Amino acid sequence: MRHADEMPDLYPHDLDGIVRTALTRCIEECFSCAQVCTACADSCLRKPRSPTW
Known about the structure:
- By secondary structure, the chain is mainly alpha-helical.
- The protein is built from two helices and no strands.
- The chain has helices spanning 3-10, 20-46.
- Helix 1 packs across helix 2.
């Protein structure tokens, strides 16, 4: 089981009316986006900067 599948089960309130598969997909996409953004930022920080005149 993936972590995103467990998250709705651990939420302390009722998720009445929420489509669990859609919520799980949204959580997974948010994790993916965060990983890509972190990798991009790390890459940008590693690039040597040329002086701007």
